[in-house]
Design goal:
Bound molecules: iron/sulfur cluster
Largest sheet: 9 strands, mixed
Oligomer: single chain
Strand content: 15-25%
Distance between the termini: 28 Å
Length: about 375
């Protein structure tokens, strides 16, 4: 009983980016709510550990928001708390933004036990960064990524494509520079324009030309060319890694490992008795439905989704197809019609005893993932 992965959501940022609909709020760096936030998480970690729910936890991830906005002291306290509550954790990642990733923060989190930094760079072009409403410059991002790499921590960089003012050439330059900085992991996402954001209000309705589907596909393909040529393998639809540098925490999400999320906006995926035990911590959780095999909930909306065993299976197939290595073929043995149809359409392929997504499968992701999720019914 317990969780294989722990997520802590830090809901603070220095300023909201123009496209962002994540659960985060702009705060002043000295706002007392940040100390209270860390205290509360440390208390929850202790209680989870006392319940025995963190004994099998192998990975932890501090995301946001902007965790580095907490500053060196608070962030180190949080990491120390995670280390003492989860003795089995190997990989411990922390998200960072270049503007709040000072040398003091890098040193403090490495000392407290973080192993990996995931830095939100998005672009290395000043005009593009300004359009996105990011508060860091390209020079600052280059310099901070280099400092992180030099510290010896594993470093990942997040990049965004199909954004305003981006051209095929500027995208290529950003990718080339990131490769040269020596990071071991890169995640690449097309911009998603969400309602209730300044971008949603500015561009809402009609899709702007910079964000059209074929531009997104072209940029994602451009990323694959540059990153794989530099020795990073694409192991997930949006993730590239040098050998041995894949993100174990994210792989846990895509392979059905139960995880618990702490902090406003954190999601959890829980199975069986662990859910009942967790009700001691989250008193608002309703009783488990009798036929539920898996529970999903977020601390933000406090709504629990109860999944039957069949729904959990369909979800695992869908998430597994995000990974280059796909799923074991036997997992689809009871859905031969859908499997054969996807094989025939070239959206998946056989590879030994596995079924793996094809290039077309990822390109037509909605169709592939939709067909697998439809198996839930
Ligand atoms: S830094 Fe990240 S979480 Fe914060 S506003 Fe920007 S995109 Fe959103």
């Amino acid at each position: 009983m317990g969780f294989g992965a722990l997520y802590v959501h830090v809901p603070f940022c220095a300023r909201k980016c123009l496209y962002c609909d994540f659960a985060s709020e702009a705060k002043r760096a000295d706002d007392p709510c940040m100390d209270a936030f860390v205290e509360k998480r440390l208390d929850e970690l202790k209680r989870l550990a006392t319940l025995g729910l963190l004994e099998s936890c192998k990975t932890a991830y501090i995301g946001g928001g902007t965790p580095t906005f907490l500053g060196a002291r608070r962030l180190a306290a949080l990491i120390t708390g995670i280390r003492s509550a989860c003795p089995g954790v190997g990989e411990l990642s922390c998200e960072a933004n270049p503007d709040s990733l000072g040398d003091d923060v890098i040193a403090a989190i490495a000392e407290a036990g973080a192993t990996r930094l995931s830095i939100g760079v998005q672009s290395l072009d000043d005009a593009e960064l300004e359009e996105l409403g990011r508060i860091h410059s390209a020079a600052q991002a280059r310099e901070r990524v280099k400092a992180a790499v030099d510290s010896g921590l594993d470093v990942s960089v997040d990049l965004m494509c199909a954004i305003p003012r981006q051209t095929a050439n500027s995208w290529r330059r950003t990718l080339d520079e990131v490769v040269k900085l020596g990071v071991g992991h890169v995640s690449v996402y097309p911009l998603s324009i969400e309602e209730d954001t300044p971008f949603g209000r500015r561009y809402g309705g009609d899709c702007p030309s910079f964000n059209e589907e074929d531009i997104q596909a072209e940029r994602m393909e451009g990323a694959e060319r540059v990153l794989t040529a530099a020795g990073l393998s694409r192991y997930e639809v949006a993730s590239y890694a040098m050998p041995g540098k894949q993100c174990a925490h994210n792989i846990a999400y895509w392979t059905g490992v139960p995880y618990v999320g702490l902090g406003r906006g954190a999601a959890s995926m829980v199975e069986g008795d662990a859910y009942d035990a967790l009700r001691a911590l989250f008193a608002w959780l309703p009783e488990r439905e009798p036929d539920a095999a898996r529970m999903r909930f977020s601390t933000l909306d406090r709504e629990v989704e109860f999944l039957t065993a069949r729904e959990a299976w369909a979800e695992d197939l869908m998430l597994g197809m995000r990974l280059t290595r796909g799923i074991e073929a036997s997992r689809m043995a009871e859905a031969p019609v859908v499997r054969d149809e996807l094989l025939e359409r070239g959206l998946i392929a056989r590879q030994g005893n596995r079924l793996v997504p094809t290039h077309d499968g990822w390109l037509l992701g909605n169709e592939l993932f939709g067909a697998l999720w439809a198996l839930a019914n």
